[in-house]
From TrEMBL:
It comes from Paenibacillus piri. Residues 37-275 form the Aminoglycoside phosphotransferase domain. This is Aminoglycoside phosphotransferase domain-containing protein. InterPro entries: Aminoglycoside_PTrfase (IPR002575), CotS-like (IPR047175), Kinase-like_dom_sf (IPR011009). One of its GO terms (cellular component) is endospore-forming forespore. Pfam families: APH. SUPFAM superfamilies: Protein kinase-like (PK-like) (SSF56112).
Length: 337
């Protein structure tokens, strides 16, 4: 069965390559934290490329390609080149699945050195600064507000699941019995910051300053070369909240290390200086225990991804709390990044 599955996969990737006028020689699969075969390194007669399957998400990826093309035209240098098929299409369909191809970026993973995180902050800051200039004069939504509404819904679901989670046997039940109050308090403190007059004014002005975000700035999507840092996997690019994306960068790339967080913020503010209200907003979004909401939801639903997600929350919880306290001081102006 596994041999047949590998043959079908190899056949599909060969057919996809031919749609781009390229002959595939060999391929290697790559996995994400939670899924297998999320992308492929394709060695071909014309070089090395990335093949990315995107099932049932054609319109979203087509819109993402539009944003990528705009950023490339504006000279933003941290994007792999997105290929077009023989028919001029950025996305191809095969057997009811969609695929796209980009150039392959050969490099190393993001390390744990402050200069690398500082440069990553600059890369993200350049993205947000460039995209705001591209979209100047257009109107959008309060994307931070939309994200926050989703978090409020997840928190309500958490409250509904909590009695069941607390009865859970073993360390899951013990953790939720011990930390439930702190999770609720963190969410309440974040909500209080968002309701403040200065942050509310910032959210209203966000509609007049839309920006393009990458949408998935995580360590697997960062490649460091001798020349620069690249962000890869742009199929989630969209208009969005720069504050949410900065908070997620701190969550997803720094291991909650305060020196690394400080370095990333220092690099970001070289490109996009933040006002006090913007700092407060980033701090509020960072303190929202989103991963706890997701872990609780997945545990209650019996999802296979739940154990890995809960393990991450449990192992990093103390570091997260220390990082939240540090970011509060940074936001209040007691620290420079």
């Amino acid at each position: 069965m596994m041999v047949a599955s590998r043959r079908r996969l190899s056949l599909a990737l060969n057919q996809v390559s031919r749609l781009y006028g390229i002959r595939l020689n060999r391929h290697y699969s790559y996995n994400s934290y939670y899924r297998a075969n999320v992308a492929f390194r394709a060695e071909t007669d014309q070089g090395v490329y990335l093949i990315k399957p995107v099932p049932n998400e054609y319109l979203r990826v087509l819109r993402a390609h539009r944003w990528v093309r705009m950023l490339e035209s504006a000279g933003y240098p941290h994007i792999p080149h997105w290929l077009r098929s023989l028919k001029g299409k950025p996305i191809v369909r095969l057997n009811r699945r969609y695929y796209y191809m980009t150039s392959w970026i050969e490099g190393k993973e993001l390390g744990a050195a402050e200069p690398e995180l500082e440069e990553l902050g600059r890369v993200l800051g350049r993205l947000h600064q460039t995209s705001k200039q591209l979209l100047e004069g257009t109107c959008g939504a309060s994307y931070t507000g939309l994200f926050w509404n989703k978090q409020v819904l997840l928190k309500k679901q958490f409250t509904l699941h909590l009695p069941r989670l607390m009865r859970h046997k073993g360390r899951i039940g013990r953790w939720f019995r011990r930390e439930r109050g702190r999770c609720v308090l963190l969410a309440a403190e974040a909500a209080r910051t968002l309701r403040s007059a200065g942050v509310q004014a910032l959210l209203r002005s966000e509609k007049l300053r839309p920006a393009i975000i990458h949408g998935d700035v995580t360590r697997p999507n960062i490649v460091c070369t001798d020349e620069r840092i690249y962000l890869i996997d742009w199929d989630r690019a969209r208009r969005g909240s720069v504050y949410m994306e900065l908070a997620k960068l701190l969550t997803n790339t720094t291991h909650f290390s305060i020196p690394l967080m400080a370095a990333a913020l220092r690099g970001y503010e070289e490109q996009c200086p933040l006002t006090r209200e913007e700092r407060l907003l980033v701090s509020a979004l960072f303190r929202m225990p989103s991963e706890v909401w997701y872990a609780a939801r997945d545990i209650a639903a019996g999802k296979s991804t739940a154990p890995a997600l809960f393990d991450t929350v449990e192992k990093t919880w103390s570091s997260r709390l220390a990082a939240i306290a540090w970011l509060d001081r940074w936001a209040a102006g007691g620290l420079t990044s």
